[in-house]
Amino acid sequence: MSELRTEEFIVNMGPHHPSTHGVCRLMLTMDGEKVVNIVPVIGYLHRSMEKMCENRTYAQCIPLSDRFEYVTAMSCNQVFSMAAERLAGIEVPERAEYLRVIMLELNRIASHLIFYGVTAMDLGALTPFLYGLREREAIIDLFEMTCGQRLTYNYIRIGGVSRDIPPQFVPQCRQTVKTIGDKLSDYEGLLNENPIWLERTKEIGYLSPGLAIAYGVSGPVARASGIDYDIRRDDPYSVYDRFDFNIPVRTGGDCYDRYLLRLDEIKESLKIISQALDGLPDGPVMAKVSPNFKPPAGEVYARVENSRGEMGVYMQADGSKKPVRVKMRGGSFNQLQALPAFGTGVLIADIVAIFATLDIIMPEVDR
Amino acid sequence: MKKLYSHIKNLLLGMGITGKHLGRHAITIQYPEQKWTMPERSRGIVVLLSDKETGELNCTGCMLCMRACPTAAIQIDAPRGEDKKRTLKKFTVDNTLCCFCGLCEEACNFSAIKMATKYEFSVLDKNELIWDMHKLQEMGRDVDYIDTRKKKTVPVTEPKPAVEAPAPVENPVNQAGSDDAEDADDRQEPPAPAENKSNDKGNEG
Amino acid sequence: MTWTIAFGELHGIFTWLHGLLVDTGLGQPWLNIVVYGALGGMVFGVLCLLALFLVWWERKISAHIQQRFGPMRHGWHGWYQTVADAVKLLQKEDILVTTRDRVVFFWAPVICFVAAFLAYVCIPFGDGLIVADLNIGILYIMAVTTFTVISLLMAGWGSNNKYALLGGMRSAAQIVSYEVPMVASILVIVIFVGSLSMVDIVKAQSGLVFNWFIFRVPFGPIAFVTYIIAGTAEANRTPFDIPEAEQELVAGYNVEYSGMKFAMFFLAEFINLFTVSAIATTLFLGGWNGPILPSWLWFLGKTLLVVLLLMLFRWTYPRLRVDQLMEFAWKFLVPVTFANLILGAWFKYAGWYW
Q1: How far apart are CA C195 and CA C182, in angstroms?
Q2: At CA C148, angle to CA A34 and CA C328, rounded to 5?
Q3: Helix axes C147-158, C102-118, angle to 10 degrees
């Protein structure tokens, strides 16, 4: 009897799918139950942001940068403002720097809470999503109290921050920090040692450090594979060098470690926020920036440590009030690019787990 | 066997956490019967503010907000008359373009435009979201604001109040001014120095 | 316990109805048909109401676990939300894929729905409240609940959709695999009672609370736990709900169904859930036994408690992957239940039970 002929077939995990975070199409080549190849098809969320930046003044680009990666909009504002400040040589007042750090870290916690909820939901546990969002509401209330918006803040501006915090911010922020710290034990108890969770995430989707470096993967995904690199410590910006915090690193490289690492990062961010609140100096929150902001001609690349990795902005100015070229770099792009290299040889259910723990946000990929 | 015991213990721990929540009161509110009080800095729709005594629009037609808007949602037609003063003929805000960034509010020197905390304005026809001057003024009538315009009646010899607070309330970098020489003459009042502005960290006109 | 609140007892209804129908003077084969038909119809009516209640309860429980309210608009705390949903589903267009296999596509939800209800012929809702006390009660129930496998395969095949077919096959494999530990858990109890009849099983647990089979260590709790796990898998609930999970790529067997056909699958799932809980109550928790309150109230309360347990499972745990699910059934549950069976048989033989 001749051998049974098998053929590979292509399954489309389409742009509309409950598990792809945003509109991402994955074309999976399957051999039976195993995935042999993944081809991500992107561009469904392309909004030509980089081109739009060329038609707007620097100040008008800031609300646009919010939409670059709306889950961590503060980081986007920060990186853009940093780039413009470096071009023009503006020094940001100290109070503004501390406020920036507080907002950035609060946003990092909010983003990781979303990650926690969405990953659990993708793998079937529907309740942690609601718990994560409940804590995130506390953070977003702080943001709304300060700048007026819940998602696209337009708060960190060129030269500082747009407004000073209201008087009830500090006590409420301390209360939020305390609440989140307490609730973390709930989250961990629900999933960390759960045998079903361990079955679904341990030993799944191993990303080797060499592969991570080759694809330029950064952020929690790289740190979970053992690469000890964090821009806040290794290339410090703002006033991060004044705070005492650890950079958690794990060597497992599988889904479980990526998940645990982000929970560790929440704890470290809480520490940074407490220290920043303690050391918040008085002073102005905005430097003297000319109304007609025209940085001298030049180019700069500014980068921050986003919840998804290195977020960078390359900006080229020619002395006019609008930038000549703005190139935005997001961490999710590299991680999506690396997915076919390490995400094959598993079942479809594992693809869902791997994709969830990479924490890819499509607007960052497509811009 | 030990592994089995720890598995069972962790499964029960998970159930304990969700079960514990069964006894807690829900934290959501029933909209629309109960509504959340929006924080005062909350950025809702754009409204035009009127003078508290006379009821006329504060807007002078300087078009700073139009230049500040990143999405060109504000369209103003305020031609200059013979006496070099502008009359406001048309002021439209296209709410379908507005991205609620608040740059227009920060650009205005005359407490004329504000992002109110209102957020309920769904309509069935998209054209009803393009608001003209009258609608904007009507929506802004019940919005409380702090008038930061320089009062013309205040005599110059009056000592100005001492300043101790930081931060000018407006962000000058967001007034995306053009290179037009005409617009340099445009301003009827020079940009008011920080002392005359309200020093509240929170409230803004 | 004989000192119950007498007016709450309902078995009078059955005897009254039976007497009424006998009095009509019908001949023998017709009398049986009419009597059992009427009783069955009553149970069917009660179950439909129960299904509606269970859907509402699931939504409320899940909402309160997540610290939100759930349905609140239709009636007090949304009690007739399910009715509104059913009316809505009735109005939906019945989308029929042109390339479907007509007969199979049509009959799959019917068989699923009917199979779900067939089990209730033998389940005692209270003292004397059973449609037919078959002397092979539990065996009949096990046989009938397996009909759902056929309907799942039919649904998968009839949709003419490779993903639905895959989903249907996975679901069928899952149910068939978990039948084995389920039956083995039940067999332990049957060994102790010595009879397959449901009424005998409940009567064997009368008396003190410690007579309930769940308390008869060591085989009782183990059998209960394995039965609950196998029952959750039978009812296609998380953590075993691969067939109906949206997040997996393979969308499940009911993806091509819309409107009332979908409602049939949906209601049948909740009826299955209640069946699993009712059997757990009858076999392990003492059935209708209990002091003071009427027996049907005890039965309902205990069953709803087990249903609450299964709902907590769903809203707490992530789902297992298909191969992990099968591995769990065959490599863990089957050996454990068989060992338990041998243990139970040994206890019975040695007379070490009370």
Answers
A1: 17
A2: 45
A3: 160
Banded pLDDT at B156 (limits 50, 70, 90): low
Query: Quick one: pLDDT at residue C159?
Result: 80
Amino acid at A361: I
Which residue in A136, A145, A143 sits closest to A167, CA to CA? A145
Sheet with strand B130-131: strands edge to edge:
B74-77, B90-94, B130-131
**Model confidence band, residue C12 (pLDDT cutoffs 50, 70, 90):** low
Q: Which residue of A has its CA nearest to B36?
A: A141
CA distances from C174 to A352, C139, C241, C278 (A): 21, 20, 10, 21
For residue A190, give the nearest of B17, B99, B201 by CB distance.
B17
Kindly state whether residue A40 falls inside one of the protein's structural domains.
no
Is A41 a domain residue?
Answer: no
Asked if residue A110 is part of any domain, the answer here is yes
Smallest Cα–Cα separation from A66: which of A57, A58, A56, A76?
A: A76
pTM: 0.86
Sign of CA dihedral C231, C232, C237, C242: negative
Give ipTM to 2 decimals: 0.84
Please tell me the total count of domains within chain A: 1
- Residues A8/A30, Cβ–Cβ less than 8 Å: yes
CB atoms within 10 A of CB C222: 18
CB-closest option in A18, A196, A349 to C246: A18
Ramachandran quadrant class, A22 (left: phi over 0; alpha: psi -120 to 50; beta: rest): left
The residue ranges of every structural domain in chain C are 1-91, 92-349
Contact (Cβ atoms closer than 8 angstroms) between residue B50 and residue B57: yes
Full domain range(s) for residue A239: 47-342
* CA distance linking residue A160 with residue A143, whole number of Å: 16
Edge-to-edge strand order for the sheet containing A298-306?
A: A298-306, A309-317, A325-329
pLDDT at C132: 80
Q: Look at residue C248 and tell me whether its pLDDT is greater than 60.
A: no
Average pLDDT over residues C174-188: 91
Long-range (24+ apart) CB contacts under 8 A made by A197-200 are: A197/A123, A197/A125, A197/A256, A197/C318, A198/A256, A199/C320, A199/C321, A199/C324, A200/A123, A200/A255, A200/A349, A200/A353, A200/C318, A200/C319, A200/C320, A200/C321, A200/C324
Give per-residue pLDDT as tens, C293-307: 788 888 999 999 999
Q: Is A357 domain-assigned?
A: no
Q: Please report residues of A whose CB lies closer than 8 A to that of C238.
A: 124
The b/e string for C119-138 (b: 16+ C-beta within 10 A; e otherwise) is bbbbbbbbbbbbbeebeebb
pLDDT at position B172 is 44
Tell if the CB–CB gap between B172 and A291 is shorter than 8 Å: yes
DSSP states of B94-160 as a string? Answer: ETTT-----HHHHH-SSS-EEE-S------SSGGGGEE-HHHHHHHTTT------SPPTTS-TTSPP
Domain of A291, CATH number, reads 1.10.645.10
Which residues on chain C place their C-beta less than 8 Å from a C-beta of chain B?
61, 63-69, 72, 312-313, 315-317
Set of chain C residues whose Cβ sits within 8 Å of the Cβ of A351: 249
Subunits next to A (3 or more Cβ pairs <8 Å) are B, C
Q: What is the pLDDT of residues A151-169, one digit of tens each?
A: 989 999 999 999 899 999 9
Tell which B residues from 124 to 163 touch A, by Cβ distance under 8 Å. none
The answer for residues whose C-beta is within 8 angstroms of residue A288's C-beta and 6 or more apart is A159
Better-scored residue on pLDDT, C44 or C99: C44
Interface check C322 vs A, CB under 8 A: yes
Contacts of C65 in chain B (CB under 8 A): 18-19, 21-22
Sort out which chain A residues have CB atoms less than 8 A from C249's CB and list them. Answer: 11, 13, 17, 28, 348, 351-352
Low-confidence ranges of chain A (pLDDT < 50): none
